[in-house]
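Below is how a single chain appears once it has passed through the pipeline. First comes the sequence as given, then the structure the pipeline wrote out for it. We keep one example in the README because the format questions we get most often are answered faster by looking than by reading.
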Amino acid sequence: MSTFFNRACYNKYSRNDIEEWGLMLRKLTLKPDPVEIPGNITAWGYIRVNKPIVGNISLELKLKRYLGFFWLSVPCLKNIGSCTYPDVCELLEDHYNETIGCNENLQAHDIPCTCPFLPGTYTLKPEMFQIPQLKGLWASLAKGDYKADVRLRDTDSNEVIACQHIEFSLTNGFVPTVSPTDKPKCTNILDCLFG
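Resulting structure:
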């Protein structure tokens, strides 16, 4: 399955539900495909925010890996895998504090790094991120084909505000060479995932 695939969860929700969601990932492109770990990845796309994203928002990630003849759910281990993150706004706020700051590309295009996310279309121009070498068990298990369902939920109302189905492949990549004058675009997993 060496193709990155992304769509709304149409088979789980009606068309009216989807149109009412607070957030829609309209397009996301990743290159190279499959994604190489470690390696450099270029991402671009756009998100449509229909309602303000603020408050108690949880992120539910259901991750499955293809094992020959069946899809196996990846358990949540050390906040990686099929996990629920109870407060996305707090997670982003903790990550993008005053010392780390927001990614330059996001700032240049007025894309917020923390809540609230106000209504509008947010466009990410092509941006290269460096994916670090995985360590331990993750290094040997990462290569493969994956499916992920990602849901954002307003925990106060229990309303689903976004749902995205993503399919992707990971492969063993090259060790990137970075000259001493180059600054990597991301240095940890949160930087790589959230910019």
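The radius of gyration is 17 Å.

See the next section for the split statistics.
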